[in-house]
């Protein structure tokens, strides 16, 4: 099984591992492509131009932007991606509290779509960084770039896998699934929830790491807390499970 997941804007300051190299990432044969994006990002950091910095960081605080601009992406220490991100979904996943078996599953089977680094495994090493969702690196749109350069490699990586897509809608731009997969929607009081969907994605990922289903039947047998399958909508290779939040 493979799980597709979103990054988060908030990040930890952990510095546990060596700086990035080709060995830091999956798809090592495409590291030079990642470098194209990383180098362009670093050039903007090095410029010291507050307007350029605020634009990619999505900030108005000049001091904070200058502080972030001091980071050298290629020389700063790293930590695993799953430990770098600290947003709502990650808070509800509670990776540090998982068993060794659950952590191993997540490390090797969760693909996170980073705005800056593209598709990475949860175990891949990342430095601290900030790039506003949707921000262009002065003409280079990272979603379009990574979709073009990495889709073929991802197709091979995901071939013959049971796939669950827990990405937020924006991150579908980085890679279009052409294989059968499960996605989810969460309904409460007849309305689709958005912000708190992040929490449920984190909770579901935690349960997936525990049960590690290899088929739709096994997935449907998982008793997700406070969630009940209301309907399953099938369109071509996409199976959307609509979950009713029960409290």
Structure description:
This protein has 247 residues and is of the alpha/beta class. The protein has one domain (2-245). It is 36% helix and 19% strand. The chain contains nine helices and ten strands. The protein has helices at residues 31-47, 50-57, 62-69, 81-84, 88-93, 100-109, 142-158, 197-211, 216-220, and strands at 2-5, 79-80, 110-114, 118-121, 125-126, 163-165, 181-188, 191-192, 227-235, 238-245. Strands 1, 3, 4, 6, 7, 8, 9 and 10 form an eight-stranded mixed beta sheet that branches. Strands 2-5 form a two-stranded antiparallel sheet. Helix 2 crosses helix 3 and helix 6 packs across helix 8 (197-211). The longest helix is centred in the N-terminal third of the chain and has 17 residues, at 31-47. The chain is globular. The relative contact order is 0.18. The model has no long low-confidence stretch (mean pLDDT 96).
What overall form do the CA principal axes indicate? globular
Beta content: 15-25%
Give the integer mean of the pLDDT values: 96
Largest sheet: 8 strands, mixed
Query: Could you spell the SSE succession in H and E letters?
Result: EHHHEHHHEEEHEEEHHEE
Low-confidence stretches: none
Quick overview:
The protein is an alpha/beta fold and 247 residues long. The chain has helices at residues 31-47, 50-57, 62-69, 81-84, 88-93, 100-109, 142-158, 197-211, 216-220; strands at residues 2-5, 79-80, 110-114, 118-121, 125-126, 163-165, 181-188, 191-192, 227-235, 238-245.
């Amino acid at each position: 099984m493979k799980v597709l997941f979103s990054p988060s804007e908030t990040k930890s300051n952990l510095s546990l591992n060596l700086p990035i190299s080709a060995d830091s990432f999956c798809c090592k044969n495409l590291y030079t492509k990642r470098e194209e994006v990383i180098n362009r990002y670093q050039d903007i950091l090095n410029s010291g131009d507050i307007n350029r910095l605020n634009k990619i960081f999505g900030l108005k605080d000049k001091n904070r932007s200058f502080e972030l601009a001091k980071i050298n992406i290629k020389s700063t220490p790293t930590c695993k991606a799953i430990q770098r991100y600290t947003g709502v979904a990650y808070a509800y996943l509670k990776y540090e509290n998982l068993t060794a078996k659950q952590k191993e599953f997540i490390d090797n089977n969760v693909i996170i779509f980073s705005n800056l680094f593209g598709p990475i495994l949860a175990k891949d090493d990342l430095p601290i960084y900030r790039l506003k969702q949707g921000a262009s690196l002065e003409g280079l749109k990272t979603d379009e770039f990574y979709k073009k350069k990495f889709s073929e490699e991802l197709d091979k990586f995901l071939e013959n896998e049971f796939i669950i897509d827990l990405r937020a809608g924006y991150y579908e731009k980085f890679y279009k699934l052409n294989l059968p997969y499960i996605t989810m929607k969460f309904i409460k009081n007849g309305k689709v929830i958005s912000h708190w969907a992040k929490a449920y994605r984190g909770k579901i990922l935690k349960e997936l790491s525990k049960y590690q289903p290899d088929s739709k039947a096994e997935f449907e047998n998982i008793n997700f807390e406070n969630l009940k399958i209301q309907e399953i909508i099938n369109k071509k290779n996409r199976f959307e499970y609509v979950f009713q939040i029960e409290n």
